[in-house]
Design brief:
By secondary structure, the protein is α/β, with parallel strands linked by helices. It folds into 3 domains: 31-132, NAD(P)-binding Rossmann-like Domain (Rossmann fold); 170-229; 235-357, Cobalt-precorrin-4 Transmethylase, domain 1 (3-Layer(aba) Sandwich). It contains 12 helices and 12 strands. It has a 5-stranded parallel β-sheet with strand order 3-2-1-4-5, sandwiched between helices. A 5-stranded parallel β-sheet has the order 10-9-11-8-12, with helices on both faces. Helix 1 runs parallel beside helix 2 and helix 5 (170-187) runs antiparallel to helix 6. It is elongated.
Length: 379
């Protein structure tokens, strides 16, 4: 049985418990100390240097590996040919160590803790205040994936999958966004128009695999000017929530949920589907208390029109496939007559989903004859 959201609540859903808080730390020009010259320590040193940190490595000459030597040659780290000591923590923003034994790891963590410096002992989570995730680097877009130490190989596998989804040009689009932000903020007030611009930006970004050029920049500036001159008007998107399984939602449905300001949902929509919505979006259960269907639809239409005319992006989330509903067709016509932009995102009907949800290969959906014939039209 699928879970349902509370009818009384229109507040964004609470976030589920987190094993660790994911944060992104500005280490530019900050001093970081590393104890040890091993290859594992070198990887952390290279990562920190890439963030702009000033990396001091404390290790005796015989303990410095080839990877760390390469970083010295590249002038990414500074080697201090001595073992780590309590005094090295002074002025440090972070401390990393590669320790051979638990005793050394315990001593290092206690010294860092006493100095008030956040610390990490490589491959010894019991002596860490923070952990490094598996990174997808499209800087300034950065993703970090963690399994809280439970399965690092799983985190790496997730990273590989994500890498295939994000085009290399994403980095350049993000850099373009940085150059446009001041212009956007100065000309578009916070709210629907500014969000509309960034939605257009995202559409351009993911509809192209090429690095953005001057024509893209000018097109986006033109979007800003267009939005400045347009009256404040929201939009309505009617989204099919399917039979309740969030995995059966279309990608477009998920994008709509994540862009919504308000989500009006019926009692057939599962909480798993609502969990995919933007956290800041207000949620309202509609249609549950009206006994008369005609009156309910009229009230809903009035509510949707009123909300959209305030500039909100309203998502009307319906269980199953709203595209098959004559009532929805009538509502779309009424909304368009009210001068609103309306979009329809179909969903999977409960009947169509049964073979997939139940994994029932005996269903009639799988009993259709298979033919190898092909019809070729040459006219």
């Amino acid at each position: 049985m699928r879970k349902r959201s509370s009818p009384q609540s229109d507040e964004p859903g609470r976030i589920e418990p987190l094993a660790k808080l994911p944060v992104f730390w500005n280490l530019s020009e900050k001093r970081v100390v590393i104890a040890g010259g091993s290859d594992a320590a070198a990887w952390k040193a290279e990562l920190l240097a890439a963030c702009g940190a000033l990396v001091d490595v404390y290790a005796e000459a015989e303990g410095i590996g080839a990877a760390m030597q390469d970083l010295v040659i590249a002038e990414k780290v500074t080697i201090l040919n001595q073992p780590w000591h309590i005094g090295m923590f002074h002025g440090a923003s972070m401390a990393i160590a590669d320790c051979d034994s638990d005793d050394e790891a315990r001593a290092f963590s206690c010294a860092a803790l006493a100095a008030g410096v956040p610390f990490n002992v490589i491959d010894k989570p019991a002596y860490c205040q923070f952990q490094f995730g598996s990174i997808v680097n499209r800087s300034p877009v950065i993703l970090s994936i963690s399994t809280d130490g439970a399965a690092p190989i799983l985190a790496q596998a997730i990273r590989r999958r994500v890498e295939t989804l994000l085009p290399p040009s994403l980095k350049d689009w993000a850099m373009l966004a940085q150059t446009l932000r001041a212009t956007v903020n100065s000309q578009l007030e916070p709210g629907p128009k500014r969000r509309a611009f960034w939605e257009r930006f995202v559409d351009r970004c993911f509809s192209s695999t090429k690095v953005p050029g001057e024509d893209d920049r000018q097109g986006l500036i033109s979007d800003v000017e267009t939005l400045c001159s347009l009256p404040l008007l929201g939009s309505v998107t009617i989204v099919g929530a399917g039979p309740g399984d969030a995995e059966l939602l279309t990608l477009k449905a998920v994008r709509c949920l994540q862009a919504a300001d308000l989500i009006l949902f019926d009692e057939g929509v599962s909480s798993d589907v609502l969990e995919l919505a933007r956290r800041e979006a207000k949620r309202m259960l509609v249609g549950a208390d009206d006994e008369n269907a005609a009156g309910r639809d009229a009230n809903l239409l009035q509510l949707v029109v009123g909300l959209a005319r305030t500039g909100k992006r309203v998502v009307l989330l319906r269980a199953g496939d709203p595209a098959a509903s004559a009532t929805v067709t009538d509502m779309i016509e009424d909304l368009q007559m009210a001068g609103l932009q309306v979009d329809l995102v179909p969903g999977i009907s409960e009947r169509a989903s049964r073979p997939f949800v139940a994994n029932d290969l005996s269903s009639d959906a799988f009993k259709q004859p298979i033919t190898s014939e092909a019809l070729v039209h040459t006219g």
